[in-house]
Every structure is written in C-alpha cells, then in structure tokens.
Amino acid sequence: MSQRRLRVGLIGCGRIGRVHAENLSLRLPQAQLCAVCDTTRASAEEVAGRWEIPQVTAEPEEIFSDAAIEAVLICSPTDTHADYIVAAARAGKHVFCEKPIDHDLRRIDTALEAVRNAGVKFQVGFNRRFDANFARVRRAVVSGEIGALRQIHITSRDPAPPPVSYIRSSGGLFLDMTIHDFDMARFLTGEEIAEVYTQAGVLVDPAIGEAGDVDTAVTLLRFRNGTLGSIDNSRQAAYGYDQRVEVLGSKGSVATANRFPNDAVISDGTSVRRDLPLRFFMDRYQESFVAELAAFVESVLEDRPPAVSGEDGRAAVMLALAARKSHQEGRPVRVEEVG
Amino acid sequence: MSQRRLRVGLIGCGRIGRVHAENLSLRLPQAQLCAVCDTTRASAEEVAGRWEIPQVTAEPEEIFSDAAIEAVLICSPTDTHADYIVAAARAGKHVFCEKPIDHDLRRIDTALEAVRNAGVKFQVGFNRRFDANFARVRRAVVSGEIGALRQIHITSRDPAPPPVSYIRSSGGLFLDMTIHDFDMARFLTGEEIAEVYTQAGVLVDPAIGEAGDVDTAVTLLRFRNGTLGSIDNSRQAAYGYDQRVEVLGSKGSVATANRFPNDAVISDGTSVRRDLPLRFFMDRYQESFVAELAAFVESVLEDRPPAVSGEDGRAAVMLALAARKSHQEGRPVRVEEVG
Amino acid sequence: MSQRRLRVGLIGCGRIGRVHAENLSLRLPQAQLCAVCDTTRASAEEVAGRWEIPQVTAEPEEIFSDAAIEAVLICSPTDTHADYIVAAARAGKHVFCEKPIDHDLRRIDTALEAVRNAGVKFQVGFNRRFDANFARVRRAVVSGEIGALRQIHITSRDPAPPPVSYIRSSGGLFLDMTIHDFDMARFLTGEEIAEVYTQAGVLVDPAIGEAGDVDTAVTLLRFRNGTLGSIDNSRQAAYGYDQRVEVLGSKGSVATANRFPNDAVISDGTSVRRDLPLRFFMDRYQESFVAELAAFVESVLEDRPPAVSGEDGRAAVMLALAARKSHQEGRPVRVEEVG
Amino acid sequence: MSQRRLRVGLIGCGRIGRVHAENLSLRLPQAQLCAVCDTTRASAEEVAGRWEIPQVTAEPEEIFSDAAIEAVLICSPTDTHADYIVAAARAGKHVFCEKPIDHDLRRIDTALEAVRNAGVKFQVGFNRRFDANFARVRRAVVSGEIGALRQIHITSRDPAPPPVSYIRSSGGLFLDMTIHDFDMARFLTGEEIAEVYTQAGVLVDPAIGEAGDVDTAVTLLRFRNGTLGSIDNSRQAAYGYDQRVEVLGSKGSVATANRFPNDAVISDGTSVRRDLPLRFFMDRYQESFVAELAAFVESVLEDRPPAVSGEDGRAAVMLALAARKSHQEGRPVRVEEVG
Description:
4 copies of one chain form a homotetramer. In chain A, helix 4 (78-90) packs parallel to helix 5 (105-118), helix 6 packs across helix 8 and helix 8 (173-189) crosses helix 12 (310-329). In chain A, a hairpin with a 4-residue loop joins strand 9 and strand 10. Chain A has 2 domains: 6-120, Rossmann fold, CATH 3.40.50; 129-284 and 316-337, Dihydrodipicolinate Reductase, domain 2. By secondary structure, chain A is of the alpha/beta class. The first copy, chain A, is built from 12 helices and 15 strands. Chain A has helices at residues 15-27, 41-51, 60-64, 78-90, 105-118, 132-142, 164-169, 173-189, 206-210, 281-284, 286-301, 310-329, and strands spanning 6-11, 31-37, 55-57, 71-74, 94-97, 122-124, 149-157, 193-201, 216-223, 228-234, 242-249, 252-256, 264-268, 272-274, 333-334. In chain A, strands 12-11-7-10-9-8-15 form a 7-stranded mixed beta sheet. Chain A has a 6-stranded parallel beta sheet with strand order 3-2-1-4-5-6, with helices on both faces. The termini of chain A are far apart. Strand 14 of chain A pairs antiparallel with strand 14 (272-274) of chain C.
C-alpha cells in the first residue's frame, strides 16, 4: 500500500458524488477525503456524517483555497464544471471532473487551458474504460489478437429513462448518454472518428420528446482510418442495463456480454433461463468507479499522465455535438464541423 | 406425405442449382425433378447423372415448352432471370427464382407483371427466412413477446470473399450480400424501410476495390414506423460465417447466436473455447434451403400464396440500390428515390 | 458416391426399425433396402409401402435365405436378437443389431461366435458414438488435447418415462438406458471399467417401481487405469432430453451442452432465456442414426472393421448387469463377477 | 449502517486469517477488529500494522480474557480449534470458527457443548453458502422452482494442489476439501445424507500419495429422502478453480457455471474462446467471505441464530469421516457408522 495518502476535496454530493465519497472512504486507502462541498449544505453534511469527513462546506471556494487539499473531484452540475476546473487549476489543485466537461467547446478549451497553464493533473470521469470487460476488449485490439480493425458495434441501453426533469438539464441523449459510447469507441479502437450520422426518435416515452429530447438512437461512425462503426442507444431496456461492444478485425472479433448477479441456469418445462443482468449502473460499474479514482490518485502520487485526458473529454463532447447536429439536420456531419 | 408430386424443371446447374437438385432428389418427396438445364450442357449432364434425372438440355426453351413440367426453378445468372421468369410465366409454369430477381427495377416490374398476368405462383430465394434461428426471432416479434419494435441490428459476414471474377458480375456487395439482410430486416420486423445511409469501404482486399466494389459496409436503416436499425457487412470473418440478428422491443429483446458443428467446450490452461461456427453457407443454411423449396412446392400443390413474394424480391433490390446510391453520393437516401 | 449399393434386409418394423428404413431410403444412397420383415405383417407392409420396398414378409427366414440380401438389420425385440444373429451369420449375411445384443451373456457369446465363424461384419447400434458432440469429446481425448484422463461424468436423462408396458420388457433401466452410457464411457475414454457401484430408486413414478424397475440412478465407475466416473440417469427431465458428458484430464476438460432447436435468446423483464433443448431422441440423434448406418454400410463395402464391435456390445451388457447386481446387493461389484 | 460496532478479536494470522482481517477492516463497518493474535507474533504484528489494529498478542488467552472483546474469530490450525472454542465460550465470547471444527467428533461435541452452555453465538466458516451462485441454487430449491429433489451433482476442483507439507496436516482430501462439498450438498438440498461411497486415487501427483492422501475422488451420496448425488473432486484443474453444482428436481434443474474475470469472447481463425475462470479461491469467493462475516456479526448484534450452526459443522465432519472410511474399506458407509 502507498504510504502517502492524497488529500482530496469533493464538490457536488449528488448521486455520483456519493459514489466517489464511498469509494474514497472505504476502498481507496491511498486517498483521504478531507472535505466535501455541496451548495445544498445538508447534502454535504449527510455525506460527511456518513463517512466521517472532517470538513464540510457549501462554498466551493473554501475547497479551492484550502492549502491542505491537493486534488478536487468535481461532481457538481455540468454548467459549473468549467468554472470550477479553472478555479481549482489556478489554485494548483489536481482535478478529476465528471463527464461531460461542458456542453460548450469554447468553455472546455478555456478550462483545459487553465489546467495546462497550472501544470496540474486532469482526468475525466469516463469510468467505463476501467471496466474489466471493456479493458479486455482494448487488450485484444492493442495486442493484435484480432488484427487490423474493421468494424465496431456498441450497444448502450439504460434499464429505464431518468426523470424528465433530469433529461431537461442533461444536454440531451447525445451529451448525456452517447458521450460514454463515443469515448468507448475512441478508447477501444485508439482511432479518431471523422464523421457521424445519427437517426434518432422518441420510441420510449412521449414525455421525453415533449422535453425536447430523443430516447432512441442509432449512430453510424466513420473513423479516419476507414474503420466503420455503429452505436445503438435506448433509454429503456426491459431486461436491464445493456452495455456491450463487438469489434471485428482482420484476424477475428472480440465481443462482450452483459454482467449478471449470478451464473445459475434454470431449466424447466418452459425454458432454459437465467436471472436478468445487473440493472443499476452502480452495480454494473462499481469496480470501474473504484478503478478510475485509483488511477487518478496514482497518476498524481506517481506523477504520471492521467488515464483519461482533457482532450479525451473534449473529443467526446465534439462527437456528441456532431451527432446532435446530424440528428437535427438529417445528414452526415464531419466532426470538424462542430470544432 | 403428399400423394401428388410436383413436376419440376431446373434451369442453371451452378453452385446453388446443385443445392436445389440434391434437395429435390433426396429430401423433398413431394416434388420430382424431371428436367435439368444449363447452357453449359456438361454441367446439366453431371447433375442429371448424379440424381438420375431423365431429361437434360442446354435450351431453357425446352423446359418452358414441356407440358409435363409444372414449375421451374431459375438458378441461372442474374441477368437471365427476368427473361426466364417471363417465358416460364407465359408457359403457365410456377416459378421459383434465386435472388436477386434482377438489378433493374423496370425489368423486375416486367417479370412480376408477367407472373401476375399468368396467375402462377412466384417465390424468391430468400432462404434465410426459413432458418430456425431467424424464424424464432420472427415469432418473438409477431407474438408480441418483445413488445413494440425499437431497434434491429443485423450482422452478416462471409467467412471469406468470393473470387474477384464473381464480384465483378455480382452487382456489388449491396445487391449480392446486403440484399439478404434487407430482406431479413423487412421479414423480421414486418415493416418497410424509409431511408438508408451507408458507409462502406475496402478493408479486406484491395483487389475488390479495384474491381469497383466494397468489402465492408455499415448501413443505417430508418423504418417508416420509426424503428431504427443497422447492418454490419463484411466479406471476411476469420472465424467463419457470421449471421446474427438482435431486435429490441418495448418488452425485451431477441438475439440469435451463430450455429456450431458441435457443442463441446474445451477448457485448458489457456482458455475456455469451442470449435468455430459453421463456415460454409450450405452447412449453415442447409435446412433452410430444403424448407424454402418445401414451402414453394406446397404453395403450388395446395394453392396458397408463396412465403416470399415477388414484391419481397423487388423491395430488397430497391433497398440495395438505395444503399449503393447512399454510398456513392455520401448521403442518406430515401428508398422511393430509387423506385 | 459409392457406385455399388449394399443390399439390405430389415427385420423389425417398430419405432427404431422405421428410423432405419427412412434413413436407408432417403439418406443412404450407398445402400438399398430390398426387404422388410415384421412378424406383424401389417407393420412391414406399412413401411414397405411408404418407402417403396419391393419385398415384404412376416418370416425372418425369408430374409436369411434370400441370396440377394447381403446385410441384415436386426431391430426386433431383444429376446430374438441372438437367434437372428446366428441365423443371419450362418446365411453369410453381415449384421447390424440394435442394442442390447441380449440380456444374457452366454447367448451373446453364442451369437458372437456365430459371427466370428461366418466371418461376417457385425455392428451394434450404439448410435451416440456417431453424434457430433460425443465424437468431438472423443477427439479431444484421443488427440491428447486434455491430457491423461482423470474423471468422467455422464448425464443421461429422458424427457419422460416410457409406458410401463415397455418398462416391463425392457430389461430395466440399466439394460435399457444406462447401457448407452456404459458404452459412451468406454468409447470416450478408450478404457475398460473395473467396478461399478449404483444407487437407484423410484423418484419419478411409483408405477415404475411396481413394475419392478427403478427410474433414477447414479452409478459410480472405477476404470482399470484408475480413472473415476459417474453416470446420472433419470427417466424424466422436465426440460427435455438431457445428454451431456464432461471429461477431466491432466491438461484440461471437455464438456458438451445439449442441442437446441434454435439459438435465439429472449431477454425480457423476467429472465434471459432460450427455448428448451430437443426433446425427442430422433430429433436429438437424427444425424447419428444416419451416420452409424453409413459406417456399417461402408465397413461392408470397403471390408473394414465395423466402428462398434460385438465385443463393445457385450461389454456394455456386462456393465449393465453389474450395475443391476450392485443395486440389488447394495455393494460395489467388480465387472468380472458377472462375466 | 448499524450504529453499534461489534468488537472482534482474531486468532490465527495465516492465509484465511488475513482475508478476514482485511474484510473486517475495509468492508465491514459494523465490526471493529480490536485485537489480533498469532503464536508467531511477527505474523500478528504484520497484520496489525497493515490494518492499524491497536492490540497485538501471541497469547490467545489475552484475547479470551479481554473484557472489551465480544467475539472471536478462530483461524488457527485445526487441532487448536476445539480448545479455543471452549475457552472463548467460557469467557462469554461469540465464536466464528474456520472449518473443520476438528477431525474428532468427540472433541467437536465437547466444543459445541461449551458453546451451548455459554449461550454464545457460534458460526462455522462454510463461506460458500454465501456465494451468489450457490445462494441462487438454494433459492431455486426452497422456492419450489425445480420441484421435488432427485439428483445433485457437485464439481469441486482446485486449480493446483497445495504443498505436500500442507496436505500432511490437512486431515486429507475428505476433511480438507470434500468437507465443503458435503456442506454444500446439505445446504442446497436441506436434506441429510444417509450413506456415502467413495472411489479415490492418486492421479495428479505421486507425492500426494506418498504423503498418505489421495488427490482425485468421486463420492456417491444417498440422502435419507432418496435423493441421489455425486461429488467430483480433484486437486488440480488446468483451467482454474472449478466450483459448480447441478440439482435436478421434478420440475426442472438448476445449474451454475464458473465465474470469470471478464465476459469477453474472442473469435479468431482457430476457436471461439474466453479467458480462464477465476483461479484463486480468494478471487472466486471474495464476496462470500465478506458476506459470511457480515452474517455472523449481524447474528450477534441482532441476537439471531447464526446462518451456519455448530451442528452443520459437525455434520460435514461426519460425512468426511464416512467418505474416508468408505475409501479405506472399499464399501458404502452409512453415516451413522462414524457417529
């Protein structure tokens, strides 16, 4: 175990902030959660009470100005990310920021410039890169096990749509959900996407359409090197959280299955069956949330480049914006059109 | 077993013609293969010798004018299909025709009009509809088992590319290969496709590109009812013939796996593995070739509508032409643009 | 295709006799079914009518004395096997005999001696050896893929018990059902079994117990070379015909799954499931019934040793008798005790 | 989270003791590991240092006499278990004891009597009962999902044999390894075993035979209610830790698969494969080790009966002794013979 513990402050005690608070408290002995902040102070206090965190505040500034804090986790609403990144970087804090960095590329650029100028570490919360299944796919690609890449297909479906209130502030399906899949496509292939074409609609719940969003989408990807891909998105899958990829190469393919709570198979007079896959994203990706923070903490403690860079975070936003534009304009969109 | 046996003539003794000749001879007691024809007479003689077929000719006219023959199987090159259909229909023969009917929609219309005018049965050789896996998917859709349709994904990859000589006369990937998948998409969903967008390239073999074709394609589908879909095509899959579909509905999904020569799993110090899936299309689809002919024969003997209509054959060609146009023009193409 | 066709007579037109008649008629061009016999003449006539077999009789002697017949398939009740084998062999006919050869080892010896003296081919109907799954297991063992053998586990369960009338004349579970598994154990390992210990009971249907038989059994096997094994038998499996094996060796294991009518997987709000495995033995083992006859016919036409010898047939009966004795006496039984 | 934390002392800082120390420190906030003891004091100090445990000793008596300690975990060598149980119980401590309680039934009885007299909680370390797979099998049995029980088959193989030095003091395969499977058989069926018959040998490593033990065994089980079962044991499985069960009932079966580090499937020109199953027992059963301690802690805090009783621990030892006797005497052994 590492002797030194990274002193961390957490901003934003919503759902994902609480996941990180628990992981920092229970599963990451190499870090120490010293302070928690939420503009709703009661939220911060609840988290602090549960994990015995000494410092509680409703003012992010208190985190940035606390000399004892070395790194900041930004888990607040998306529209606050860029400002907090700038403030944290200027205060010399290393930054872990939830995705998306922002919905606006110029604001992202400002934030990343502040990070570069300050020379601090910066990691974006694309936790799925740290999942054992996707990591295995990446290894198959990198090692040459499947040869030169030709096709990738990503299936990414939520068990059930979030509340419409959430959807309204989410930036829409592409910036909220597909963004993970764009990052996955880049991560798994190691290649950049040149063009996207999206067909999307409201097939799950009309209320989502009334909120100005779509709930079902298929996005076609053309990579710069000629690799072709597609992403299936749905806000609802009756059977649970559906997170799979398949990559075809010249020597073969690699494909993942969903993860299940157990491996028991029941055979009776009607069918051969098993229980549903893990339904809740925190069950499905629990280990990856731990692993992404461990990677961030180690990148700081050992002064190595973070596993997911600011450029990765920016690229995924660009792709999401291109997909949204493609959907809006009904035509293929080259990614540089939105850059 | 049906008492009466349908008297059949076969035109075209190439690869697929021989599959039908064997099935008619060994596995379809309700039919009798009376005559075989190939413009390369030696080919026809070889087939006739093997299956003890009394009548052999190099002249299709002999088949059409033979009053004893009730039905004709057209397995000759695509550019002869339309003329043979017209001739057979005018002679009052029922017609089974391999796909595609033709590459030209007007010639297809002429052929189908002749069929309608003659009042004969007409079936197109989309054998995959008769495969146990895809039939099960269709049942899941029709029965409401998976609810209202939302997404379909079709994977269709050949084990290895055909000779470039074949590719030159094949009409290209979309008319030769994707055409099956377009039919599958229509068959499984029971819905019509409104728009396609295709990205395609040469990732397998430059010689295919030099022959003016592509070998890798991803095609995005928008159905009239809003269902979204995609098709992955590749002329090469190192692991064998890859033929799968997944359909997502409001109540769940149905997905097929490939078929394997055996179900043995070997676990040793390196992996848990099984033998490769069936590699050859005649092994993979053997039963479906028998079943499609059985269905055709029964539709004649029992005077019922054929399982795959001329309109089905035409629709698949339209979709293939639209996909080709989309690829050529780099934009989504509404299917009626090619109609 | 072999030019010459083996001229075959079939004795016994019950269930399994009809399977062979169909296979000889439709699927084995290298053989010709010339004559069928059943002491219930109507049965023979029905089969002859269906497959257009020229010669029909209720007298087995007519088959034996017909000089044109080269080989005889014995599918009559077990208690007639030995006599028919002797008569056929003396008449110089090659013999294919359904299992078990007989329930009595001395009668088996007499029959096999007649075969040896006549110098004719003799094959026992252990069709499962020709199944693609079990053949793959055998290859894994023979090729050294799993190393030196250590354990074998055989699961063999019928979908539902046969009528009690059948059970009464079947010789009991061990001679009727486990006999296949004993042959499988010998075939897959290539080793002889030294001792068996059986625990059995009536857990499915009391009527089976009243008929003097058991319906559930577990049999432990000790092979001469130290390999250990077990066989699970049940006359009923709610989910269908259950036929699997697993072999453990020093380098790994090989295990088979059941065979299914399709490979579609349905995921909905309750489970991830597939349709039941093939339920009927003729569906499950259809190809193996064809393959065993093809092997027999070829062994005659090409003068090679049959794939399943008389000694194989005898050994399986000995093991079944030893299992029955073990059950009756409640102790492990060395196989030579019953020899 | 429970407010009160159970104060625990740990005796024995070997491999399994360290697993429990880590789980108590990181994953069980409802308990507090206050003291660790190992007769090799350096071992205890190492564990204490790692998990910041205040109290360290080489004298178990210090644990028993410490009034602040409410519960004791006994992870020391088997031959010390009984004495420590007695001492702990007399001191009024609740006891969690690793399996087996002892190799001698009378010493077990003495220990359990002390526990009863003291009125303390007592749980045996059959962690596999808390594994998600086996728990699901148990639910299928209890809920009636598979109907009345008929057969059970347990596969239990280690990836590689332990050092011969360990084997010498382990009590042999039956008391060290099969004991888990006996407990599993009782747990899953909820039934008592009446008779066992074991065939065993040395097929993995002659050194194990020279140490007086066997490395491969198949054990046949007859339950009091007529259910039949078998257990496959091997000290070596090239492919990793192999832990599966199958239970057949009147309405169907339930079967488990092994657990894998990821769910990626690679298909290339040679096979369709996945990575090996989890190899190390602490990876395979990590969650069950946490869950068994959580259950123990809760049984104390909430004054409920422990999930695995002293009688369960005794019954498994009886079965292991009966299996050993069966192996030694080459005959079926009724379990009461060893009681």
